[in-house]
Amino acid sequence: MATETETAETQSDDQEREQGPLERWVGDSISDPNRAYRPMFWLVTVFFLFTTLFPFYWLLMVALTPEGQLQDVWLTPNGFNPGVFIEVFEILPFHRYMFNSFVIATVATLVVLVVASLAGYVFGRLSFPGKGPLMLLVLLVSFFPPAAFFIPINDLFNTQFAILEPIMQDGSLYNTPYALIIPLSAIFMPLAIFILTTFYSQIPDGLEDAARVEGTTRLGALFRVIIPLSAPGVATAGVLTFIGVYNEFFFSFLMTDGQPENWAPILDGILGFQGQYQTLYNAMAAASIIGVLPMAILVVVAQEKIVSGLTAGGLKE
Amino acid sequence: MARVTLDGVTKRYEDVTAVDDMNMEIGDGEFVTFVGPSGCGKSTTMETIAGLTQPTEGTVHIGDRDVTRLPPKDRNIAMVFQNIALFPHMDVYENISFGLRLRNYEKEEVDRRVEEAADIVQLEGMMDRMPEEMSGGQRQRVAIARALVREPDVFLMDEPLANLDAKLRVHMRTELQRLHRRLDTTIIYVTHDQAEAMTMSDRIAVINAGSLQQIAPPLVCYNEPANLFVAGFIGSPSMNFVEAEVGTDELETENFSIEFDPATTDGLAPGDRVTVGVRPEDVYLDHTADGVEHSTGLIDARTDVLEPMGNEVFVYLVTGDDAETSMEVEGGAATDDQLLMSVDPDTEIDIDEEVKVVLDRSRIHLFDIETGDALRHGLVEVATTGSGTPERGVGDSD
Amino acid sequence: MARVTLDGVTKRYEDVTAVDDMNMEIGDGEFVTFVGPSGCGKSTTMETIAGLTQPTEGTVHIGDRDVTRLPPKDRNIAMVFQNIALFPHMDVYENISFGLRLRNYEKEEVDRRVEEAADIVQLEGMMDRMPEEMSGGQRQRVAIARALVREPDVFLMDEPLANLDAKLRVHMRTELQRLHRRLDTTIIYVTHDQAEAMTMSDRIAVINAGSLQQIAPPLVCYNEPANLFVAGFIGSPSMNFVEAEVGTDELETENFSIEFDPATTDGLAPGDRVTVGVRPEDVYLDHTADGVEHSTGLIDARTDVLEPMGNEVFVYLVTGDDAETSMEVEGGAATDDQLLMSVDPDTEIDIDEEVKVVLDRSRIHLFDIETGDALRHGLVEVATTGSGTPERGVGDSD
Amino acid sequence: MPTDAPERGRLAPVVDWMENLSEAAYAYLLLTPAFALLALIAFYPLAATFRMSFLEDQTRGAEPLGGFVGFDNYVNILTGDARLARQFLDVQLTSGFPFVELGVGFFQQALFVTLAFAILNVLFTTLIGFGQAIVLDKDFRGRRWVRVAVIIPWAVPIVIQGMIFYLIFQPTVGFGADLMNWLGLFGSDPLASSQDSFFIILIADVWKTSAFMALLILAGLQSVDRSLYNVAKVSGASAWQRFKLITFPLVLPALLVAMLFRTMDAMRVYGLIESTAGCTTVPSLTCMVVEALFGGTRIFGTAAAVAFMTAAIIGVFISIYIVKFRDQEGGVY
Amino acid sequence: LGSADDDTIIIHSDTDFQDIRDTVQETLWEAGLDEDISYEVRAAADDTEQRRQDIQSALQAGRSTPDMFMMDSGWTIPFILREQTLNLEEQLSGEVLDTIENDYLQASVETARHPETDELHALPLFPDFPVMLYRRDLVEEAGYDTEGWATEPMSWQEFSEVVADTRDQSDVDFGFTTQAAAYEGLACCTFNETMSGWGGAYFGGVDNLFEAGDRPVTVDEEPVLDAIRMMRAFIHGQEDEHALEGYEQIAPTSIVQWIEDESLGPFQNGNAVAHRNWPAFGIAETAGEDDFGEAIGAMPMPYGVTEEESEYEGLGGSRVALGGWHLTINPSTDKIDECAQILEAFTAEEVQLTMFEEGTWFPPNLDLLESEEVQEIEPLNRYTDTLQALGDRAVPRPVTDIWNEQAAVIAIEVHNAYTGQKSPEEAMEDLRNRLERSEADVEDVNAN
Ligand SMILES: Nc1ncnc2c1ncn2[C@@H]1O[C@H](COP(=O)(O)OP(=O)(O)OP(=O)(O)O)[C@@H](O)[C@H]1O
Ligand SMILES: Nc1ncnc2c1ncn2[C@@H]1O[C@H](COP(=O)(O)OP(=O)(O)OP(=O)(O)O)[C@@H](O)[C@H]1O
Ligand SMILES: [Mg+2]
Ligand SMILES: [Mg+2]
Questions:
Q1: Domains of chain D with CATH codes
Q2: How far is D136 from chain B (nearest CA, A)?
Q3: Fewest Cβ atoms closer than 10 Å to its Cβ: which of A277, C105, C142, E139?
């Protein structure tokens, strides 16, 4: 650990954004002995790449192995069946499952970010009586295995509420996207609240003050200054929530009957390849690789938001 | 109406009282400068006026409204922060126009105002720089421009020019005064630059340790300081202070005496001890003292240190025969046998020279030795002293 | 050995050249001040010396070592940052002792040094405050103390006193000079305060738009500025500039003429145009001009604006008969028919009064009208001019 | 989203009203949406579950729960008399250190398995996550793709994560069982052995959740004001010292949040176990809750009690962090 | 948002059923179902556990859809006991009830009745039972005559010798592959049938299967222990001190982490001699044209002791675990009548045959396997005689309201014994204690 850190840290010495990395490397390695660490840095990077990607690579091999030949898969698939990536859409309307998950995750992420931002602002920047206990109460939710919520929620969401009658088929939330968005938002809320609390609390008061003097409300300052400046934290909370909801298993199973047209999420799709005695591992693998793609895109997009050192240059203190 | 009134404002932090029972009334359209040593509570007072800090006690009025509990956005103020506080995620244009955009001004109006402000602070052509790509002074100018574009009732400026070079500072001063005249806005200003305070303000508020010492026009503060603190704080280099005992017709200091009739002053009697104050520019070499009408007798001194400043030279004198060359030269804070004198740069004078000096009696101040309160300004009554006539700075004179 | 040598140092950002081919040699133990307008590249030059920025071109040597590629930690420097940059998670003590703790000093040694530094910056008793609980000036003092505790080869101080009040600033100046003497460290200093630059430095480096204009002792810069920029930049208020045509035995400006023999100066011939520069303190009312040995003839003028500064008064004069009252008074940047004069506060003078003034010919500067380079300092040769003898500031004189 | 322009008409009274609230009232107001949502989805169900935990199990009949039995369900769980395949706590004590029978028996205790899993998991994910975050914090060509690569395990659904490792350690399918057996680390059928499976699950979970740590720590790293590094460099700090004295303390709040949630998640591990070795091989606390609830035999009272016991244990374990948060200067608690 | 229009009956089932829905619907109508009544299949997960949980939460919440559920015969009774099914005796005609009583595989029907009242609460849709598949080609190459193996069970001892010998003679790695992971399948099926073949039982014979509480726990009796010892011999060979003497080492140790899918792999890849699995799956995956075709043989499960040697009635001899699925009606549905009609239509012979043709679901009336239609279905037609022979040998698991709880414990302890973590005696002793405690719990409750 220590060596890794040191190596990596050393790279940042004299880091200059306006020079190309290669140019820099060539220049630096001639005159600076620290450059000797660079190969170490790449070694560490490659190590991480290997360890994180290998299982994924192996998953790809499983996907490419034709059904029924799942034997001795090591570095190459046992057989070669790229068609599986199309088959998964033929066996099941997998795209619909993906769409469902995508919509649910997007909405839930927005809900979580907005609601948790308010709470994070309060916990991170205001002081008021009962702050500690309330934070603990938020945290408390995460002490419980999701199953602990099962029975009451199952009853609740299958209860028919007259007010819902006009919107929902039979007045219950079951089999509607709300049945997923609401509980999933709540379940991922504590994490988001804690992340945002941490990041919001680190934005110097001076910037919020400046915004308020310029004429924003406290909330205005939150949305215009604190949130943009906490971009890394907000993006992280968003990515974690999105991925979490997208892949959520427990409530998804509970709140829909698994039909794609009833907003069943992607996991129902993936598990749709599981039979009573037999599992279409190749299809499951292919499906999950396909299912992970939106996330990879999301990460690429979100990280554009994670701009380094945003707070630099604003304050003199 | 943008009178600003502070009524018994006190701000206490856990262990510090940053502002202590501050009472102050700043007139509509007045330009008031807060001065005082570092940490005396200037910024805190400003933050209270801005609404960024809730006073522990007391009330703040702007105009006739009690704004003590009003959020900053409803106070119609603009502020230049001491710590600059640019929004790091916005470029110069966005920073400057922030307040305007919040108020949904038309795009053209915003552009026009931003351009004008950028022009004033000489930042044309930097509109799309990010704060981190600018020099310290440039950042400070953006902060000023951000306040300038607004047309608030009250401007609060906390050391807005601290990081600017002399020339730019002079330019900015003029611009601020022009603005002040044009908008007739109330301006509350903090600066450590005495010249700035002197030339720009209608009144100066001298603050020490959280409490207001004097609020008066600049020359009054200079010529008739309310107490020892103000006397010592205003003017650079600082006033010379010497302890003295009141005699029957003189003030007896350790090394020299000054002609003085205690009867002319209430509450002073022979035998009392007082602090005598005299500014360096009121100390003269005997041969240049021609113009001084009411000079003291000759005082023997030895030059200790010379500090040439270009347009004047500060001479550190040691009075008294047994005085050794002082070990310490603390700018202006002379000990009892030290005396600081300012002379023309042409004056021929050398280190360790024995000289004779005189003081201008009409410019000698007496202070209570315990409380520091001013007892008397000028040992003789002179008609022409500038005191009492609040002359205003350059801003008024053209 | 802590000579600092810059060799053709250039720093380019995407669209800006912050430092442009800077060559400079700063001697071991020398105190050099960088001055120049905001954004001229002072901080960037410092960062290059500190190793925080890699120059685009050129090399930096400290002592005999080429440190251009050396990380900052191996350069043995201490720096006070313009943006202060205290560690927000450390209290005052931890901030100040940071550099020492890094080097595993003994606890007692650390305590001793921190205490000493805190004493110098007058922050005793604040050791366990967090940065956010301090005033602007207090933070700045912590930043200074953080540099002071170290005993580096080179001190880099970027406007360390910008947020301090006059008194504290004078105190800090003295302390810094003392420190300089005691440690004999090389100090590179940035300030916008001319007095500071004048009194503290062995040499002043005047920078404009990234390039070095002049590096010389303060009085040389003041009395013999290398070019128009330096002449205008050093001295406050700024030097008066008037365009003139060289005649056979005079300089002919628009509104008056000055006796001058072009033959005494290489490269000047009648008919050439030059810029004439004269400082406000070298302009005298005719009746106070007794001491001026080489005065010009009387010049007719009208007082336009008076700016009383406490210890002196600036008088804005308009020369020429047809001149209207100037619309603009840009501090010191007088137009051709404006002339700024500084007089004693006792002088009796009023606005809109017709006066006659003279200039001190020994203090008149001539500059090339195109390049701005100085052609001549003083129209007569005077033995006593301070020029050529690099007098040093107060630091040397006691 | 609330507006801030004073000129905006209709919302103005609301905005004014909000602005003029005292800090505490304002705080409570902004917390309302979050707590409303939590009340509906979390607090209400938990209260109902809590009530259930005091009622008797009813394995047959229309009514799922019987009469009030006080703490019986809890007592049964602690004494090992509950109707659960694996017991919560079923320690064999020994006379020698560490006074608990380790080895096979150890890995069949839900409590110990869970605690050991959580501790090791948090330890490894923190170390690896930190390393990854530091790599990702650097500017280098291709960083964006490395970042995606590092984060991708987190995007893999748990069932698939389980499937990958299940298949890797399936002797005829993957290479894992043979490889580890050859290395002498595992027996020949790792997924049938509690001990081997424990480590498989640990590896699988570290693989996936390091990304979580990395992501949060990375965000923390990127929020550090870069100018502080300049100060530290000039003060003479080496890379390691900068890390220790600047980076680490400034990232600590984010790190603590990451570790806190990682701990809680690790202590609730279930899905991964279910999709690899199965709950009978590696029992965790949540396994017990789920099995009690969904095992087919209707023992809801017991299930509720196990859930609350689990929460209590997590709560106790988590209190370490809460103390830490309190210590944290400017921390959130 | 619901997909079904209001008159359609929704059946909670799996994708297999969904795939054949149209054909089956047609057949139902042909069998006399009211043309207005149609149904739709809602495919839940195919995993039996997840389906059970799914149904459980639907019924728990009192949801009115789906209208009918397809339930595993292994866990229908708990639902019946929790009053989450409809009593079919009140819904179906006497004629239909008679058919079920008389023609249906009785072991199967037993798991569809209320254990206390004996009333029918579910309609058996199809039964299922595993077969022992073997590589006839290899065995014959090794010099064995497989004549009669299809219907005549052999003893485990003989089986182990044949398999071991064949394995050694051919170049396959494994002899016998089966499922022995610690999962429900071990308790309900693989161990259950092995134990039954040795004349052992969990709760003292086949009469005590469906009512928990007052029944003996007999897991530590010799036949049970012998079954375990035999398996230990299969897995660990004779070096194992607890191995039953005279039995060869024929199974890879990996079977202790295998369930159906994994265990099939080696056999499917031609790397094992014999393999125990569910026919619909095992045969379909291996005996097709493209696979081993005729080289795959099937036989009834071998036996440990003969029926006569067994202490308990109906045990000993070749025994197979009973699987299969039932249909039940959701008590909360508004369409009870329609559901009942559908159920009745499912009892029609042509429907049963269609289900076999289309989905290889055995007709609950096993006699239908002899029908001509069946004889045309490749490759299953080659194995019908074996399959038919199995019907009588099927032993249901002892499903009660607490069976799942007990199954978990059984799986753990048997697995412990298989893997050698405990000796057979130790494991069964522990198991007996746990089971007795569990039985006592219900007894307490019922006594209240
Ligand atoms: N990161 C950057 N990107 C682009 N331009 C920059 C960057 N940093 C500094 N500059 C520019 O370089 C020039 C020199 O900046 P520098 O900070 O050295 O000025 P300075 O002399 O210290 O000014 P000041 O007195 O205002 O602090 C400025 O014009 C500034 O805008
Ligand atoms: N949050 C705080 N907690 C405790 N003390 C504080 C806090 N903020 C300010 N102070 C103290 O209050 C006093 C006044 O601070 P203030 O910022 O008003 O000073 P100032 O006059 O602006 O000084 P400067 O000229 O140095 O900026 C100082 O002594 C400061 O240390
Ligand atoms: Mg301040
Ligand atoms: Mg700078």
A1: 13-48 (no CATH), 53-328 (1.10.3720.10)
A2: 22
A3: C105
